[in-house]
Amino acid sequence: MGYSMDQPGEPAPAISQDHAGHHGPPTMMGYWDRNLTNAVADGALTRWFGFTEANIRGAHLSDVLGPVAYQASIPHVAAVLGGTEEHWTLRSRGISGENRTFHVSFVPYWTEGSVAGFVSLFTDLTLTLAGERQAKQDAERYRALARSIPSVFVLLFDTDLRYIVAEGQALKTFGYTADELEGRTIFECLPDKLIAEVEPRYWGALRGEETTWSRDVGSRTFSLTACPVATEGPISAGMVVAMDITRARQKEQTWAALHEISTAIARNEDTASVSARVSDVLLGLFRVEKASVVRFIEQDEVRAVAVSPPDAVIVQGTHKSHAGSGLAADAVRCSGAAAISRYAPDSNCIAEATMLTSGFRSSAAAPINVAGEAWGAVVISARSNERINADVLGRLSEFATLVEIAIGNTQARADLEHQARTDALTGLPNRRTFQERLDREMQGAADTGGPLSLVVFDVDRFKSINDTFGHSTGDAVLTEIARRLQGVSRDGEMMARLGGEEFVWLLPGVPADSARLAAEHAGESISSVPFSEQISVTVSSGVCDLATVTAAELLDAADRALFEAKRQGRNRSIVYRSPRH
User: Fold this and answer.
1) Global pTM?
2) Cβ(224)–Cβ(183) under 8 Å?
3) Distance between CA atoms of 70 and 39, rounded to whole angstroms?
4) Rounded to whole angstroms, how far apart are CA atoms 545 and 555?
5) pLDDT tens across 509-539, in order?
6) Is the Cα dihedral 182, 188, 189, 193 positive or negative?
């Protein structure tokens, strides 16, 4: 290979001075005769090595490259003058002192069947190598992140929807390994149903969009987010982060169950009715086939006071408990601690045999203690051993603690009612309490004709705080926001949490324009003081009053104003203006 001339005596090859139309890494070119003297050089090569167009011609290769680079090139010069193309990588310092990395090619120039000289090409790889290093560092950073957080996995994919990185402890929960995914497109390694789920979200990420969805995998629940990988140029990669939110979802369900039970207590329902609600809740909360509440009574007796769903296996009645019965409730009665029972086919215990005959394989029970005394237990039974494990037993014990409150004395009922009306995280009134107060204030405003305003706040880009710093930090931020908002609220007003990162402020006797000023002041109380060295927060708010809309439209109109504040750039307060005003 090499350059050649059809006619002897032709001059050295012409070289463009500007490489018009060149794409890709910039290249410097020159021609050198067998004496290593320059005959032709383009402008880029001339400028890099500190020559002019006039004085580079006739310069020796050693004078141009410098002693170090020249010594490195001697073997390649010998080879190219022998007719062999040479390629290698060279680190060079330009006349300005800047270091750059070049791919160097020496290509022989043939004339009349012999090598008359050679063409040199210096292709600048500096930016390419820096980009490759950055990409590798980014990938390793994502790998390290995924490895360090339990119950998380991270996927990086390119514009062909090919996985670049698949890493994380939770990946195996979805039935995949890194080796099965990395280097393959989604069309090569995922089933059609899963491709239909993820493909539009992946394309959206490559368009700069962020999408979050959830998926149940067995007994676990995951939150998945597809988003673009941060870049200063065009988006060339997307990322999926999956996080196990099972515990958070279970916590939500547990508190919802507590609310249901506390409502029964507030209505002064009897113990049997409350226990029936508890057993019904246990079925859905733990996804088992049987649940019950049992009462410990005198003389080692255990009585089932509620069973869901009712059947002939676990009946509402009384039996004598003993440690060797094989039943989890009896184990709790004897030891006072939560217990798991696995029903063995070869057991001689009648109770175990009865459970096995009905298809049950395992049970778990946790004690209920009221006023320091063993009151009874909550019991769940499953048709598989996998459904009941140590984690489930821990959750059941937590739930049993809530049940203790539910069936306690009058003070316990009062405590539960308070919990049902208060947001567990922030301590603010919850949506239910707010709605009751709003109904009363709207009726009062209707009777007197006085003003009534509503402000709805939403934390700007709150999801990024959760994604970057974790949900525990996100919870701490919400708690501090609630404290600051409560600090600007006056007597007679109500600040409540509607849910998520949304708060609402009820201002009786205040018109919309005054409420907007109050909302801006509240926003400043949040944005003016950072929450930490790394976290600063702003809020957007929507304002509406009864002078603009009907009572039924008030909250919805404030929400629309909030949406407009978000649309206009966030960190602002917008008053809803009805088209008819």
Assistant:
1) 0.38
2) no
3) 18
4) 9
5) 999 999 999 999 999 999 999 998 899 999 9
6) positive
